[in-house]
Write a structure and sequence with these properties.
Elements: E1 8-12, H1 16-27, E2 31-36, H2 39-51, E3 55-60, H3 66-80, E4 85-88, H4 107-132, E5 144-149, H5 165-185, E6 190-197, H6 206-209, H7 212-221, H8 231-242, E7 253-256
Length: 275
């Protein structure tokens, strides 16, 4: 199957969900351009895709910096001619910066976490949209599709295990940004959607995956997965949203959560995880 034949997809990030999505998009015929802050990760993923018979190129960029973002988008267009799809995955935990419950949250934790998870998405979308509005539509009339990365925490908080309020605020803002962009760019034949995964195996979830209590919580909270989600589960959704299968779908938020959003959580106060 080549649902993305002759399409060019830019993916931000190179491990976890981003890595799984880049491989999956390439397997469906897309030329994939990988952008990551870590040069060896980006180049290694692109080489892996090429070795498997796909088309891929890569660039390293700090996506918090406008000039770096612009350079990466320019490099993608130089390599493949256009951009048909964006999956903006790059982001991460702000715990190292001081993210946590709001009454303990440091100003640095707030700023750094929003820069990592919201500023990056906005800057990448801005640069990609600047390219898309000027390019000719495909045979099916599409100028492009954007897929943003939110989190189940923006819709169904977990106060006992994931009380990271700056991260949740950033992911909630992405939901609003998705809807606003979808409304504005629909007349341009550009679609904008978002995914909101639950706890997924990735570099970001290493701490959670090493904590027996959190793993047990994930088994209960995500009963369809029986634990942490596979990143491939999100990659499948990326193929749908960036292909013509979703050509009439925009402004939507897809929860990929293994049942998290419909499984209750006891909350009796501050837990040891928040100490």
């Amino acid at each position: 199957m080549e649902r993305l034949a002759n399409r060019v997809c830019l993916v931000t990030g190179s491990t976890g969900i981003a890595g799984a999505a880049a491989r999956r998009l390439a397997s469906e015929g897309a030329a994939v351009f990988v952008v990551s802050r870590t040069p060896e990760h980006a180049a290694g993923l692109a080489e892996e895709i090429r070795a498997a018979g796909g088309r891929a190129a890569a660039a390293a960029a700090d996506l918090r910096e406008p000039d770096a973002v612009a350079g990466a988008v320019t490099a993608c267009r130089a390599a493949f001619g256009r951009i048909d799809g964006l999956f903006a995955v790059a982001g991460g935990s702000g715990r190292a910066f001081g993210d946590g419950p709001l009454h303990r949250l440091t100003p640095e934790g707030w700023e750094e976490t929003l820069a990592l998870n919201l500023r990056t998405q906005a800057l990448v979308c801005r640069a990609v949209l600047q390219a898309m509005v000027e390019q000719a539509p495909t045979a099916t009339g599409s100028r492009g599709a954007l897929l943003l990365m939110s989190s189940i925490l923006a819709l169904a908080p977990s106060p006992g295990y994931f009380a990271t309020h700056a991260y949740t605020a950033a992911k909630g803002a992405i939901l609003s940004l998705t809807r606003a962009l979808a409304a504005y760019y629909a007349p341009y034949q550009i679609r904008v959607n978002a995914v909101a995964p639950a706890l997924t195996t990735s570099r970001m979830s290493v701490r959670a995956a090493a904590d027996p209590a959190t793993v047990a919580f994930a088994r209960w909270k995500q009963p369809l997965a029986g634990g942490l989600l596979d990143p491939e589960a999100v990659a499948h959704a990326a193929v749908y949203f960036l292909s013509d299968e979703s050509r009439y779908v925009t402004g939507q938020i897809l929860q990929i959560d293994g049942g998290w959003g419909v499984t209750g959580e006891p909350w009796l106060g501050e837990s040891e995880a928040d100490q």
